[in-house]
Amino acid sequence: ERTTRxxxxxxxxxxxxxxxxxxxxxxxxxxxxxxxxPRLAQAELADLAGTLAERLSGAPVRAAVxxxxxxxxxxxxERLAALLDSGAREAFSAAEGxxxxxxxxxxxxxxxxxxxxxxxxxxxxxxxxxxxxxxxFGAAGPPAGADQVATEVAxxxxxxxSLAALRVLDGLGIRAGAAVGHSLGELTALHWAGxxxxxxxxxxxxxxxxxxxxxxxxxxxxxxxAATPERTARLSDGSDVVVAGYNGPRQTVVSGPAGAVDEVCxxxxxxxxxxxxxxxxxxxxx
Length: 286
Known about the structure:
Elements: H1 2-8, E1 14-20, H2 23-36, H3 42-55, E2 61-67, H4 70-85, E3 91-93, E4 98-102, E5 110-113, H5 125-129, H6 131-140, H7 151-171, E6 178-181, H8 185-192, H9 198-215, E7 220-225, H10 229-235, E8 242-248, E9 251-257, H11 258-270, E10 275-277
Parallel strand pairs: 5-6
Antiparallel strand pairs: 1-2, 2-4, 3-4, 7-9, 7-10, 8-9
Helix pairs in contact: 2-4, 6-7, 7-9
């Protein structure tokens, strides 16, 4: 039944997995594929992905290619071969769909659940691909056809998306050892830890969104800057924005009136710093 449901789902891309005892062994695995893949039909790419997955031996040198078509796969495999030929031992290129590395320790999985500002409000690939994800959305009944950025709409939809992803991962036998969340995502992490049911989580996110919408005058905005907190503080000097999140050593989030946030983004751009307005309806964490 599980296989039938997987086959019935709409697939956006295939994952080609390879491993070898050392880089030379992995490179040898690539040779036949470089000849084969350009001749494949679209449907045969899925067959190849399944065959390669079954052939995995657990060897330490590992590579993955994400491809949407045989031509796409051929380009990515050629890139992987070039990396190995150049002596590269690690690669992580989402744009090219090429990943290379060595397994040094047993894998440890941690879930990071998203908050507002994540996603684009559209139906995600996981929902198109897996019927079980669509079942979660059907049961939760999040708002549809409304402003996807509005906090009273975004919050229940975001947690529903996380619940759908959890259901799919669980069905695939993937388990995490810990979970954390960004803002709203902390509620999803609490659900994962057993503090509340799926129904309770969606209901809480719905009420939370409505209360936050009523409690704010609106007109706020947020932006993520690819900069240290110190540089972000300098770029924000004299403005009405505040630092709303320290996401990483060079990933800082600011929050405040929309005009002030836009001004900080302009200052950042003038200095060559990437600044991205988040898809949120309020100046959260300000």
